[in-house]
Amino acid sequence: MTAQRQQWNWSWSKPLFRRAIAVIALAPLLLAPLAAPAATTQRIIANRFSGLAIDGFDPVSYFVDGQALIGLPDFEAAQGGVVWRFRNEGNRASFLAHPEVYGPQFGGYDPTDVARGVTVAGNPRFFAVIEDRLFLFNREDSRDAFVADPARYLPRAEARWPTLEQDLPQ
After folding, report:
1. Model confidence over 43-102: pLDDT tens digits?
2. Global confidence as pTM
3. Per-residue b or e along 40-74, where b marks 16 or more CB atoms closer than 10 Å to that residue's CB
4. Can you list the alpha helix ranges (DSSP code H) found in the chain?
5. 3-state secondary structure of 94
6. Judging by DSSP bridges, how do beta strands 82-86 and 123-130 pair with one another?
7. Residue pair 138/123 in contact by the 8 Å Cβ criterion
8. What is the DSSP letter of 47?
9. What region does 106 belong to: left with phi over 0, alpha with psi -120 to 50, or beta?
């Protein structure tokens, strides 16, 4: 191969090489939205890949067991446009009888963020049961702030939630 031809091949492949590097460099930014565990465009937080409400955690276990426990595929129920999982048939029956009691408040969105006027998906592992209501939080520090002074956040969150909920597609 002549020197001129070798140079031509390199100059021809140089733009492709630059494009490949750019795509590799931008890949994390382009794929970041796909890595989000929960959708924030729903009225009830559900995993975007599995469709499970609150990532498959049993909402009744927060009340009965005082902890976040994963539900089982054998005990599922559809309610509110999402699929919920439970640890046992009793929890499933309790939830179906009173979803407004056992379901997370504000659809599972972080109440401290709802109080600020934004919807941020709560993490089922960061929770609090206050006044017989389940609240999920995006971060541990949000939960701690809310638990320390619920009267500071709850009235503002309750006032803003109807507008925020209305803006979320069904």
Report:
1. 888 988 988 999 999 999 999 999 999 999 999 999 988 999 999 999 999 999 999 999
2. 0.74
3. eebbbbbbbeeebbbbbbbbbbbbeeeebbebeee
4. 3-31, 61-64, 89-97, 99-102, 111-116, 140-148, 150-167
5. helix
6. unpaired
7. yes
8. B
9. left
